[in-house]
Design a protein that fits this description.
Elements (H helix, E strand, L loop, with lengths): L1 H11 L3 H14 L5 H11 L5 H14 L4 H13 L3 H18 L5 H12 L3 H14 L4 H14 L2 H14 L5 H12 L3 H18 L3
Length: about 210
Amino acid sequence: MARLILGMCYAIMKQFELFKQEMLWLTEHAPNESLPYFYLGQYYSKDLDQVDKGMEYFRQALQRNPQDIRSRYLLGYALELKGDRKRAMEEYQTAVAAAAAQQATYSLPLQGVARLYLQENNGDKALEYVQQAIQLEPKLATNHRLLGKLYLTTGDLAKGVAALKQAVDLDPTDAAPYHLLFRTYLKLKMPAEAKWAQAQFEEVKKAYGED
């Protein structure tokens, strides 16, 4: 759809009012299409003050396309942010099953399940799911970042450092692994490495941090 492509171009250019106009036009004139609802949900859910509005758009997208695993995952993530772990887990597990049925290479729902288990201090189950995520998408940096965080939480600092280094190699623009490495090197009493990680964190944050 030309209007959908136009709206996404506006989003890329950060012309968000024009983006919203195009998406809302589509919800009115192509009401059975799920993508405009997905993109509006994605837009609003980035703002914690409007996450409920974003969730409603994801639900609207899922009404039109129940197999939309991206909307399912992001609805779960919004619920996780709001502290509703039970319903977040339900959405993540549904997305995991749908992705498997579709044979989709999409590991974020597995990440979501792993995060929730980690929050519950269930390291074994968290490790099981993050390893599945890595098997599905071995080059996705956030999978390795989550693995590193898991190992740090369970006290296996050496494995945590190795996983975080892998995350950095896969995505040098993500500042989060550097911050975790900085904190870990301090625990390991490795001041030179800690200084390096802190410098990298500040440099990446300055260059690629959000506006």
